[in-house]
Amino acid sequence: MTGSSPPPPPHSTEFWDAHYAAGGNSGTGSYGRLAEFKAEILNRLLDEHPVESVIELGCGDGHQLSLIQYPSYLGLDTSPTAIEQCRRDFADDPTRQFAAYRTGDPIPGPADLAVSLDVIYHLLEDETFEQYMRDLFGAASRLVVVYSSDSDQPSDWPEVRHRRFTAWVEHNLPQWTLLQRIPNRYPFDGGTESSWADFYVYERTPPLSPSRRPRQRGTTARGRYA
What is the pairing mode between strands 198-204 and 176-182? Predict the structure, then answer.
């Protein structure tokens, strides 16, 4: 043979747990001016759309969380290493709960609001993306906030795969309506303090009433998810 194909990229879950275990963090998007921008938008949305409970699918190392005024909050992540760090950092805050999660796991809830920040374009496998999207929107009774790119453009980074997720939602989840798109204050310019992600705010029509909310199988936030 004159050559060999490059090895396939690691599974999304394996990549990120290895990243955190090696001392990595949630990346430049969760620090500096991008983190401040995201916190400003989310805190404003929380003022405009008061909620009592929040689930975040992909909480990372928790630094972004520290800037946001969420009420009762459950943070999920595929990296057990990141979850342990979050539990240590927020040990004195009873309103913050965390759990290791793999796509397709039962999720307590639904919460009023589900959040996904800088996650979707890191989902490399089609089946992981599909299940994550169903998990995300299934975790919310009223609102979903997504911060992501929304294109099919190729990426030079092996850990990034851009997707037209809004088209997927429109086709697969017609009960969810896109209320608002908020452009990034710092659109991608090649620098580390810019991003290709924008905010997308979805509303369920009609929202699930408490009597119609499905009971999730699995442990509660005070058991496995504590």
Answer: antiparallel
At 53, which CATH number? 3.40.50.150
Structure tokens at 211: 């009597």
**Structural domains of the chain, count:** 1
- pLDDT tens-digit map of 156-215: 767 889 999 999 999 999 999 999 999 999 998 888 889 999 999 999 998 887 645 444
- Tell me if 168 sits within 8 A of 131, measured CB to CB: no
Whether residue 119 has pLDDT greater than 70? yes
* Cβ contact 133:169 at 8 Å: yes
User: Where in the sequence is the domain holding 103, given as residue range(s)?
Assistant: 30-209
pTM over 0.85: no
From CA 17, how far away is CA 83, in angstroms rounded? Answer: 10
HSE (CB half, 13 Å, CA atoms) of 186? Answer: 15
State the residue for tokens 């037209």: 164
Nearest to 172 by CA among 216, 129, 219, 120: 129
DSSP tag of 11? P
Residue 7 lies in a domain: no
How far, in Å, CA of 60 to CA of 95, rounded? 17
Does some domain include residue 43? yes
In a domain, 216, yes or no: no
Q: Flag whether 74 is in a domain.
A: yes
Write out pLDDT tens, residues 156-165: 767 889 999 9
